[in-house]
Amino acid sequence: MTPPILYDFELSGNCYKVRVFASMINLGLVLQNVEVLKGETRTEEFARLNPWQQIPVLRDGDFVVQDSQAILTYPALKYTPQWIDTTPMGMGAIVEWLSYAAKEVSNGPQLSRLKFLDPHEDIDLVRAQAIGLKVLRLLDNSLASRDWLCLGRPTIADIAVYPYVGLCRQGKLPLDGYPHIHPWLA
């Protein structure tokens, strides 16, 4: 059986979350580096793989899935269902956090970090950092009474939110003053 291929970029937190999850569930991946900063996602060849022209992309045989949240869901359902939940309430709780990772975390900590990694990006840093601080406050408050984001155990929700929060200092967002985030990150 051929291992899945992850079209990857080392600096991407979205790719990182897929690599971390694959490592945690012992899912061997073939990493195919995509030079995002050199425009490799904007080629016709890459657009045939992913019309959104974004990374990460996972190819498992003939099946292709794009978007880090969808990619996390796929191997969880296929290989390790303990990382998701089969109940409507449980899956609803997980999907809330997947959406949070895709919107709020992306528009805050992720964009703040990107502005410092690639200053040519047209990013409103003040807005991104304001959203980032809101993300950190909400996350810290959510973790004040629990160890995990939902269901009382680690799920793909934790993996989805983790990278850009863990890297938020690269976007000049402080982690000091958020005591409940530190144990969760550890």
TrEMBL record:
PROSITE patterns: GST_CTER, GST_NTER. Residues 2-83 form the GST N-terminal domain. Transmembrane segments: none annotated. It comes from the Bacteria. Residues 87-186 form the GST C-terminal domain. InterPro entries: Glutathione-S-Trfase_C-like (IPR010987), Glutathione-S-Trfase_C_sf (IPR036282), Glutathione_S-Trfase (IPR040079), Glutathione_S-Trfase_N (IPR004045), Thioredoxin-like_sf (IPR036249). One of its GO terms (molecular function) is glutathione transferase activity. Keywords: Transferase. GO terms for biological process: glutathione metabolic process. SUPFAM superfamilies: GST C-terminal domain-like, Thioredoxin-like. PANTHER family: GLUTATHIONE S TRANSFERASE D10, ISOFORM A-RELATED. Homodimer. This is Glutathione S-transferase. It comes from Rhizobium leguminosarum bv. trifolii WSM597.
